[in-house]
Write a structure and sequence with these properties.
Blueprint (H helix, E strand, L loop, with lengths): L1 E9 L2 E9 L9 E10 L1 H8 L15 E9 L9 E5 L14 E4 L5 E2 L6 H23 L8 E4 L5 H12 L3 E6 L5 H7 L3 E4 L1 H4 L10 E6 L3 H9 L1 E9 L13 H5 L3 E4 L7 H14 L5 H4 E5 L3 H9 L6 E5 L3
Parallel strand pairs: 8-9, 8-11, 9-10, 11-12, 12-13, 14-15
Antiparallel strand pairs: 1-2, 3-4, 3-6, 3-15, 4-5, 5-7
Helix pairs in contact: 1-10, 2-3, 2-8
Amino acid sequence: MFKGVLIEKDDAGYRASVKTLDEAQLPEGNVTVRVSHSTLNYKDGLAITGKGPVVRTFPMVPGIDLVGVVEDSTHPEYKAGDAVVLNGWGVGEVHWGGLAQKARLNGDWLVPLPAAFTPQQAMAIGTAGYTAMLCVLALERHGVQPGDGEILVTGAAGGVGSVAIAVLAKLGYTVVAATGRTQDADYLKALGAAEVVDRALFSSPGKPLGKERWAGAVDVVGSHVLANVCATTKYRGVVAACGLAAGMDLPATVAPFILRGVTLAGVDSVMCPRADRLLAWQRLASDLDLAKLGQISREVGLAEAIPLADSLLRGEVRGRIVVDVNR
């Protein structure tokens, strides 16, 4: 028996609660993991509250991240005692996820826990930090260099934004942080932002083209924000888009792309190939100042994740929430 957050939907309604579960209830998989920590991400917030169509089958254990130790494995790459990390692959949506003390998974979804990180640090990074690193890799792949100019990070005080700022600053980029919570300016500058601007500058419908400023950008917001970021990106600049906090729409024109050669690079972390995952975690080990993880994250217990889900969706949570599933 083990404890986990369980989402149920039936005639009594949609609800999430901490339940005692039987190992026999775990889904099929070739690796069983004793989970030590998970996280609370935007997608988890949608799943727990039911405010987005994230969960596809019920009942469901949410949690798109987990770190733990293999208890049992028939997968050729993993054996009992191995420390592993999982991000994405539909866990917490179509397959029971990490907000529980045990998980049974497809071993192809796992990566070894990098030696540079403790389990807590790995989850302080989590999907948000791993996605931020994929965005940085996308900027690099398209040729954006520190000397090219300012890099804008939207949703800067959230998990993706916080890690993106810390990594980009360590790599020598000049980072401008856009946030709706300007009271977090000192926090963002401590992570490495050279300047903090109000998200309101990007939130309203804008012109097809604006004054060129950004050599690159990491956007988690979408909608008008992403449209305005593209419109103010410099000639041949690159925008890495990985989120939809303001909506799935993109009320933009083709002007930035055909008149300035701007690249809009989509970044997906859920189904990302294993080789790219391994590279992202390798780069996080070298390019993220681990001392900053203490500023970026805080730890809560399993039951605390449920009420925090609403706060996360309202934009009231700064940085990363690490969930110790054993407390």
